[in-house]
Amino acid sequence: MKALPLRCEGDRWLRYMIPDVVQRHLMLIDQRLAGRIDFGGSQRLSESERQRIIYTSLHEEAITSSMLEGAATTRREAEDMLSTGRAPRNTGEKMVLNNYRAIEFIRQHRTTPLTPEFIIELQTILTKETLDRPQDVGRLHTDNDDIKVVDERTGDVVHFPPPATELNERLNRLCIFANDTDTTLQDDNRFIHPVTRAATLHFQLAYDHPFCDGNGRTARALFYWSMLRAGYYLFEYLPISRFIYRAPAKYVTAFLYTETDDFDLTYFLVYHLRIIAEAASELEQHIREERARAVQRQRDARPQGVNNRQWIILQEMRRSPARWITVQSYQSLTDTSYGTARNDLLALQAMGQVKRIKMGRQFRFVLP
Questions:
Q1: Would you say 272 and 255 are in contact if contact means Cβ atoms under 8 Å apart?
Q2: End-to-end CA distance of the chain, in Å?
Q3: Where are the domains of the chain?
Q4: What angle do CA 275, 95, 227 make, to 5 degrees?
Q5: Which of 119, 134, 105 is CA-nearest to residue 177?
Q6: Residue 37: pLDDT above 70?
Q7: Considering only CA atoms, which of 71, 64, 27, 11 is closest in space to residue 277?
Q8: Where does the pLDDT of residue 42 fall: very low under 50, low under 70, confident under 90, or very high at 90 and above?
Q9: SS3 of residue 215 by DSSP
Q10: Residue 302 pLDDT greater than 90, yes or no
């Protein structure tokens, strides 16, 4: 077990371990979510296609994170509001719009160090004009507030947050933990994987429950901020709340197991890693589908009279406009005979797709 510098109840601190399942998921996340969106495919997505995926994912995250908190709206109406820019018609739609604005705020401030003021501003964005008591927006709870977490299905109280007198100390400690990137530490035993750090922030903010309302949304937003800050750029494309929304009982159980088993965060960490893996798998499938559509569009746009070999070479040349092709390189790239390669290139020249220039004793074919 490894101890974390975050206190829970009394003198009991968060701790976790790294079983094989955690190591495996962390390795896959490092491989899949810190790189580029193409996932190693040969057919790259255009910038407009990337932006469309981000656009869709941000909408999905805003909608499902709000629905997790009981936003009374339909997915279709919420999507219509975000897509058209119309004003929200009810509190549920305001929750969705607030979530969307909070995600945009986080994307713009991914490199901003975390402070208590940052957390309060985030909660303010998330809860504006959606609370029964407007004065609770952006306000830390006090001992006069009756704050508890209730299972809405049974009415049972499942969590009493720490006393309000501890909130300032807890928030300051949380920010110190969030801002420590481990890059300057000399002691290898103190290293905490960035995904573990992000999941810990999520749990601890929800456990401390510093606000009268909006704690769950704020905790998930902090997780999102921490992942982007750590360089997991593809996290912009992962609507994690959608996967929590599919099985909310597992989300609650992950909290409860951690709290009731001497604050062993491993339960919550394993849960988080599994939903990230699920989200990454769906993203990969989505990218494959987008790539297939992109290939089909390019095939549909192929000039008349250009064969498959010629079309592949033209696409390669268009991706690198300064590139030139010789008969020999065409022959190598398309695995054809010298005669076929020469005829293909001369045919492209006749169609005006390439032009031939002489460099020394060699003919080269370039884009017009």
A1: no
A2: 65
A3: 2-293, 308-366
A4: 35
A5: 119
A6: no
A7: 27
A8: very low
A9: helix
A10: no
Indicate the pairing of strand 157-159 with strand 13-16: unpaired
DSSP-assigned beta bridge partners for residue 15 = 3, 264
So what's the architecture of 2-293 in CATH?
A: Orthogonal Bundle (1.10)
If you average pLDDT over every residue of the chain, what do you get? 84
Tokens found for residue 263: 């604050």
CA distance 266 to 26: 13
- Write out the two tokens for 73: 């709206």
Q: Which residues contact 144 (CB under 8 A, 6 or more apart)?
A: none
Architecture of domain 308-366: Orthogonal Bundle (1.10)
> How far is Cα 69 from Cα 156, in angstroms, rounded to an integer?
17
- Taking the CB of residue 246, how many other CB atoms lie within 10 A of it? 12
pLDDT score of 14 more than 90? yes
Q: How far is CA 328 from CA 113, 244, 310, in A?
A: 55, 55, 14
> Whole-angstrom Cα distance, residue 356 to residue 346?
8
Cβ atoms of 214 and 138 within 8 Å: the answer is: no
Residue with the bigger pLDDT between 64 and 3: it is 3
CB 334 within 8 A of CB 313: yes
Nearest residue to 125 via CA among 214, 65, 64, 199? 214
pLDDT of res. 233 = 77
Cα distance between residue 295 and residue 142, in whole Å: 58
Residue 253 pairs in a beta bridge with none
Please tell me the distance from the alpha carbon of residue 216 to that of residue 68, in angstroms, as a whole number: 9
